[in-house]
Structures are given as C-alpha cells and as structure tokens.
Amino acid sequence: MAHHHVSRRLILGATATAGLAAPSTLRAQAPQVKIGVLTDMSSVYADYAGQGSVEAARLAIADSGIQDRVQLVSADHQNKPDVGSTLARTWFGGQGVDAIFDCPTSSVALAVNTVAGQAKKLVFFSTAIIDRLTEEDCNGYGLSWTWDIYSVARSSVILQRRRGMDSWFLIHQDYAAGTAMAAMARSTLEAEGGRVVGQVAHPLGATDYSAFLLQAQASRAKFIMLTAGGSDLINLLKQVREFGLIQRGQQVGTMFTVITDVHSIGLEALQDLNFVTAFYWDRDDQTRAFARRFFPIRQKQPTMFQAGVYSAVSQYLKAVKETGSTQAEAVRAHIRAKPFEDFFARNAQLLPNGRLVHDMLIGRIKKPSEQKYPWDYYEVLGVVPATEAFRKIEESKCPAGNRF
After folding, report:
1. Is the entire prediction scored with pTM above 0.90?
2. What span, in angstroms and rounded, lies between the C-alpha atoms of 115 and 118?
3. CA separation for the pair 384, 319 (Å, rounded)
C-alpha cells in the first residue's frame, strides 16, 4: 500500500506551465502539449540530470514560441525500474503526457522504453548510456539523444589514434558497463590499426591499484585507458601520479567525465586527464549563451545531459508547432526529415533506429595553473564528426521492422 502512496506522490510530480503568450497565429495552429521530465532527483545522478534537467526543459519551453500551450510535469524515478515504468504508464495513460524526457540509469531507461513502445508515445533519453535502447531493444519510440557506449569508446579511440596513441593498456571496472566499454574500445582500436598490449579488470571500490599500474607501466603502452568513475577514478589517478607514469611519457585517459564531478573532485586530482564529452558549456558563444541563463538557476554549469534535455525538448516542441500535431509518428517523422543544429547538437541527424548522431568532443582537464575563471575546466582537443563517432545504421542490431 505504501508503494502505491509513494508512486502516486511521484506521479503528481512538480507541474509548471510556462508564462508568456505566443502570437495568436501560433496559438491557432499549435495543439496543447504535455511533457514529462522523468529523472533522478535524489541519488547518484541527481547532479548529472535531476532538477537541472527540469530547469533545462523549462528554458526550452520558454524559447519554443508556444509556451502558453505547453504543460510540464516532473518526477523522481528513484533509479528503480518498477517506479520508472509505473510513472511512465500513468503519465502516458490517465495523465495525458505526450512525451517523456531524460530518464537516467540504464535499467530504468530500458523499462520506460518498453512502456513507450506499448503506448506508442515518444521518450527522449538524455542521460542513459546503454546502446540497447537503439539496438536490440529499439522500438521506434525510444530516441537516444546524447551519447551511448559505442560513441564514447569510438570517439576516444579515433582522436587518440590521431594523436599517435596506437598502443593501449586497458584498466576497466569489473562489471557490465566497464567490461562493455573496454570491449568496444578494443574492437575499435584494432579496426583503426592500433593494438591493446594489456588489459586488466579491477573490482569496484578497490583502494590499491599498484599491481594493475605496474602491469600498465611494464607494457610500455603509449596510452592507458581507465573506465572507472567516482572514488575509484580518484584513487587510481592518485596512484598514477605516485608511480610517475605521466612523467615517464605515458598518457592517461578515461572514457568520459561529467563537469559536476570535475567541480567536486577538483583539477588537482584530475589534471591532464583525456576524456570524451557530448557538450562543454565554455566551448563557444552558443554554449556560453545557454550557460549564462542556466547557471543563475542552479549555481552550476550545465552537464551534457541537461544540455541534451534542452535540445530534445526544443526539437520536439518545434516539430509539434510545425506539424500542428502531438502524434508520436508525425513528430518523429518531422525530426527525422532533415539534419539540424542547435547549441548542443552539431551536424545532428536522427537515424531510423532512434539514435541521434552529432559531433562529439575530446577534451583534456586543465591543470590548476591553467584555470582562468570558475568552471574553466576543459581544453577541447578536437571534434569527432557525427558520421565517425556513432554506429552506422547499416551496422545496427535494431530489427528492420522497428525502424522508422
């Protein structure tokens, strides 16, 4: 009984309608539309997405030109697949929600993707990394907007190969995502003419990495790739410095970083780390313009996931406005029809399996001495074009009957 009470409270969420009236010509054309941000408000991904994703959606609504037609609801899925799928089912059913956005945590995203397919309503995934949403489990209604394991691993390999890093040593976490990222990096590196000279798996929460780092050192690999995050990454990097691997000429990278983590951990611990990201707030005038609006609301710079939510909501509402419909198939076809660009997504194109492809960035975390102002954390080393970063549709495992 308690579970139903909690779910009902979550389902009600936080409702906000946007303010300014749209021109009467648009009011006549655009239907009423209701969107939901389903996210992690209270746990491990609250900084990555959470309330910041809700605020990003609000900014997108305010910019849409149909803000008086749009209603926004939000809820915390608590990183529980059953809570996420219950919320999605209720929103799509009795609550009349037309589309759902964000949805961190792979297990929750997969559950919500199934509900979206059954309801024939769109869900735009911004934070979940798992490839299955647009591969084996694709259904035409789940759209992956920001990244996936393939694009992160492939982008890492492409740019490091261009920098001459042709021999790698992989140190990965001994669990599903770490193993998957290491496997993807290995296959991509070998396809690009490089080689993995060694690979080790470490348990989650390890404190002593000396045996792994000694192997990496002895391998003489030019590049050492880590898949760890959080405290595992901090401990690993401390010991990388103690062993003097970088001073001896070996480069060290991680699959990705999130700017709120860099802010929490600090440049001292993370300096010179190479990584992949889909977005950086200080990349250019377009990204800075968004950051200037977002920062006062959250007192944090936007993550790639929050920027992705803004982009997804913007493109969705633009399609609703231009088609005069909230029907999933009509909106999806409109977004799919042609490439687009916004401050988040450059050279963007929605593929028929629901995967949005766009340019990815490779960066380096600055040394403390290089920082010029607050949140000045990244140097962008290069761009991996959309067509190179993401899996080609010809290679997709998405069943042909589920493509659009």
Report:
1. no
2. 5
3. 27
Q: Which of 217, 206, 221, 211 is nearest to 174 (CA)?
A: 206
In angstroms, the CA 21 to CA 25 distance is 11
With residue 304 as reference, give the H or E element that holds it. Answer: helix 304-323
**Which parts of the chain sit beneath pLDDT 70?**
1-28
Residues across the chain: 404
- Per-residue model confidence as pLDDT tens digits over 188-230: 999 989 999 999 999 988 899 999 999 999 999 999 999 887 7
Handedness of CA 212, 215, 217, 223 (dihedral sign): negative
pLDDT score, position 12? 41
Q: Strands of 33-39's sheet, edge to edge? A: 16-17, 70-76, 33-39, 99-102, 122-125, 142-144
Task: Name the nearest CA neighbour of 388 among 158, 189, 169.
Answer: 158
Comparing CA positions, the residue from 335, 361, 360, 362 lying closest to residue 349 is 335
Condensed to tens digits (0 to 9), the pLDDT of residues 300-330 reads 999 999 999 999 999 999 999 999 999 999 9
Which ranges of 63-202 does DSSP label H, i.e. alpha helix? 81-92, 106-119, 149-162, 176-191
Q: Which two tokens stand for residue 9?
A: 């409270």
Place of tokens 């259904």: 139
Contact of 366 with 381, CB cutoff 8 Å? no
